[in-house]
Predict the structure.
Amino acid sequence: MTKLPVKLGERSYEIFIGSGNLKQAGILVRSLSQAAKLVLVSNPTVFPLYGPQLVEVLQANGFTVNVALMPDGEAYKNMEEALKILDQAVDAGLERSSLLLALGGGVVGDLAGFVASVYQRGIEFIQIPTTLLAQVDSSVGGKVAVNHPRGKNFIGSFHQPRMVIIDSHTLDTLEDREYYAGLGEVVKYGVIYDEQFFAYMESNASAIRNRDKSCIESLIYRCCEIKAAIVEQDERELGIRAILNLGHTFGHSLEKLGSYQLYKHGEAVAAGTIMASCLAMALDLIDNRDLLRLLDLYKQLGIFPPRLAFSAEDIIAGMLNDKKTLNNRLHLVLPNGIGSCVIRDDIEQKQLITAIERSRHLELEFTK
Ligand code: NAD
Ligand code: GLY
């Protein structure tokens, strides 16, 4: 088991990474909390796989465990479901000193974290992420939220977990499409921050694609390390943290246009990153070689976003409704070579349309 600190003063915590960590979860959770009760939030897909084992080790460490399940899917990351979990927390008699645990992917983690942030003005919570995407991104950094009918993650808070327990063994049951979608967020770290990491993925693409255990753990470790370094500098996204949103402004619009069914989050991020890269190329921030490197890596890793079924105008309308606008101007993260990026707020609609159309053309070639 390896341990990675996230240094945020009094909100600091550790990320435990390893295979078989669930078995240690009872001891780990007890090591930081004297709470008597906790609510374990999960969903009907994940709970039968890992819930009973987790409940057992928690009970063995003296916790009274109440299980609260939300339906599976991004479409349920909403206030209605959050209220149901809040009701269950009230029924279970959760106190301010109690704990909430999130066992699942990013949807469960975001919603459970949001509930923890508002229940009795905030209680402690622990992330036990079970998808690749959640293990490399959403469980770390304290962004918690639910969607509003008008936009993704519109209702939320910054509420850091007290601990993140990553058991890479849980990925064994993850469907291929979810695994490859998660790799969309993994590639993001290489593009925005670390050319060497990007090159590592290029050199180990087939092992990663074939889910080699030690490669996966290295990926998880490096992604969490990069995310921690960025969040430590800018916990509330007033500056550098925004670079983690590469591809997200485009991607959130695609997810919403697809009614949160057509795209997996990581696929939408990959599609959005291709659009951002086309724009970056038009602005001479990257050259054709960089773009081909990115497309090739996606292909080698098995990341294939669904074909673009929406007009550029509709995508842009959705982007303007995203949270990342300031005074109605888009703030877009664009790659600046591989391993570095810039944030631009001076992009005209015409340039966006051209980039989206260029990416549509590329995707057609790419998905053949
Ligand atoms: P998800 O939570 O919907 O999980 C994907 C699917 O895999 C679900 O059907 C889930 O039940 C299933 N699953 C989970 N673990 C499994 C396992 N071990 N075995 C078998 N099936 C399993 O999707 P996701 O990709 O994990 O997360 C996407 C969400 O994360 C989005 O809502 C996105 O906005 C959010 N997100 C948040 C942040 C953040 O910083 N808070 C960052 C990135 C993404
Ligand atoms: N996933 C973006 C962030 O955590 O800031």
